[in-house]
TrEMBL record:
Database matches in Gene3D superfamilies: Erythroid Transcription Factor GATA-1, subunit A, Retinoid X Receptor
Keyword Transcription assigned: yes
Family assignment from sequence similarity: Belongs to the nuclear hormone receptor family.
Keyword Zinc in annotation: yes
Compartments in which it is found: Nucleus
Main location: nucleus
Species of provenance: Caenorhabditis remanei (Caenorhabditis vulgaris)
Protein name: Uncharacterized protein
């Protein structure tokens, strides 16, 4: 305890001169504080009772300089400090915070064990000396709010055991972390985080075979694609309705457009992108919302949180499925064609010639998407199972600042659940650990490239809405690409008309 006090207390220059480090003064006795306070004044004004007899008998002819003001009053009794975590008396400085010995030991063991705790009451547990052991999650959060630094744990031991000086310490931030901010939690393993929630993977894991659950996900994806009706694609009505708001579309996406086979509308879009732009966009929205409607894990979140996840991640997931669908179409046509060179090979820019003619920016975007997304997909020979799991991983993303801290932690747990399933699937396909790691790394690079491409396309869609290009000036386009959703996270009302939306919500200014 004394060592920690010495490490954390910094002497000023004045204190160092008054109290040299090699001189120790004994504390005053109890009788000293019971005696009347001594009044010090000039030597000539001392009373006979308080003046020594030797001084009265032989006064000093040269008393020297005055000592008035050079004597100090005895220090006051030290104040008893309370623990900033539980309020227990007798707290001292530990790891940067003023806490008691019990909270110091708890903080040290929690950081060293690298365990994560979850509060069942959402971080609202009362904390005092008698109830501090009830909820370890709230207790650890209060330790962080008391400015206790995890980097300080074990630092003194390392200084004693090592002959070389310790490395530079990580600077502690000045703000108080949020309750479920993952940066405030000790680092935990994927298994620990995923075990804190129950996903549909656990519910439908019959016979302890998670691959059967993955096959169910693949079947749902194929049902949403509706490519079984590909030969009847020209018989579907080519009409779409983007005049409904997102709230209505989330509840019932069928009025947006008919369930045209995805491969059919993708071919139509590649041949004439300008004419089929709106129908292609509406079919992707219909496909995405139909997929989210059957997502059981998404139902565990509030209506506001569901809306945020859907609005923020739609375009990224639509880009992922579209580029995978383009690659599949190119492979099929190239394999069925003769070797006369009339059909270009997969991942060739010739497939996107009509899109490249729209503008110079479109041509640059096509080249980047082909090189950063489609070519890695082709080289990895990415499977439908991997695409489906990447969709779930991208859906449960907490990138927005609009999410609350508790929801961000739950989103992260669900994402890690699907990351674990992806790891198990790849482990079954690839026995070599190094090759597995390399494949997962390449898949994550594809996800990052898809997100970057989606950000660029989102600006395009904003411009299409404002200029009414391809008749894209509709409410649903506004909700997905123009509306700023951070205001919706703090508002209580959602059911509003399109005119009210345009008055209350700011339009993005990036374009």
């Amino acid at each position: 305890m004394l060592t920690n006090m010495l490490l954390h207390h910094k002497y000023t220059k004045h204190e160092f001169l008054l109290n040299p480090p090699n001189v120790f003064y004994p504390p005053p006795s109890y009788d000293f504080f019971q005696s009347p306070t001594q009044k010090f004044g000039p030597m000539s004004q001392s009373s006979p009772e308080t003046t020594p007899s030797s001084a009265l008998a032989s006064p000093d002819p040269d008393p020297g300089p005055s000592v008035v003001g050079r004597l100090k009053m005895p220090p006051a009794l030290p104040k008893i400090k309370l623990c900033e975590v539980c309020g227990h008396a007798g707290a001292t400085s530990h790891y940067g915070g003023t806490v008691c010995g019990g909270c110091k030991i708890f903080f040290s063991r929690t950081v060293q064990s690298k365990k994560g705790f979850v509060c069942e009451r959402g971080g609202q547990c009362p904390m005092n000396a008698g109830k501090r052991a009830k909820c370890r999650a709230c207790r650890f959060q209060l330790c962080l709010k008391a400015h206790m630094s995890p980097e300080e744990v074990g630092r003194l031991r390392d200084m004693r055991n090592c002959d070389y000086p310790p490395g530079p310490m990580v600077r502690r931030e000045g703000f108080v972390v949020g309750y479920f901010d993952e940066n405030s939690q000790p680092s935990t393993s994927l298994q620990d985080c995923s075990n804190q929630i129950i996903s549909c993977i656990d519910i439908h894991n019959y016979g302890n075979d998670e691959m059967s659950v993955l096959q169910t996900f693949v079947n749902l994806e194929r049902s949403s694609d509706n490519n079984a009706a590909l030969r009847f694609g020209d018989q579907f009505l080519r009409v779409c309705n983007a005049g409904i708001d997102m709230s209505s579309a989330m509840e019932f996406p069928m009025p947006i457009c008919e369930k045209i086979p995805m491969d059919y509308i993708r071919k139509e879009f590649l041949e004439d992108p300008k004419t089929n732009m709106k129908l292609f966009w509406c079919r992707n929205v219909n496909h995405f919302l139909e997929w989210t409607c059957v997502n059981e894990d998404l139902r565990h979140f509030s209506r506001q949180e569901q809306t945020l996840l859907i609005a923020e991640n739609f375009l990224s997931i639509a880009c992922l499925t579209s580029f995978y669908g383009f690659l599949r179409i190119q492979r099929d046509q190239f394999e069925k064609s003769s070797e006369d060179g009339t059909v270009p090979p997969p991942c060739s820019v010739e497939w996107f010639a009509q899109i490249s003619k729209l503008s110079t920016e479109a041509k640059i975007s096509v080249h980047r998407a082909v090189s950063e997304i489609m070519e890695p997909m082709d080289s990895l020979d990415i499977s439908m199972e991997e695409i489906v799991l990447l969709k779930y991983i991208m859906l449960f993303s907490e990138s927005s600042t609009s999410h609350t801290s508790s929801d961000m932690y739950r989103i992260r747990c669900y994402r890690l659940k699907y990351c674990g399933l992806l790891r198990k699937y790849i482990k079954r396909q690839i026995p070599d650990p190094e090759k597995r790691i390399a494949r997962i790394s390449e898949l994550l690079k594809i996800v990052e490239s898809v997100r970057n491409t989606a950000m660029y396309l989102d600006r395009w869609m904003t411009l299409f809405y404002t200029s009414n290009t391809c008749q894209m000036n509709d409410v649903l386009v506004y909700d997905f690409h123009v509306r700023t959703w951070h205001e919706y996270a703090t508002s209580s009302a959602w059911n509003s008309t399109s005119s009210g939306i345009k008055r209350e919500i700011q339009i993005k200014r990036e374009y």
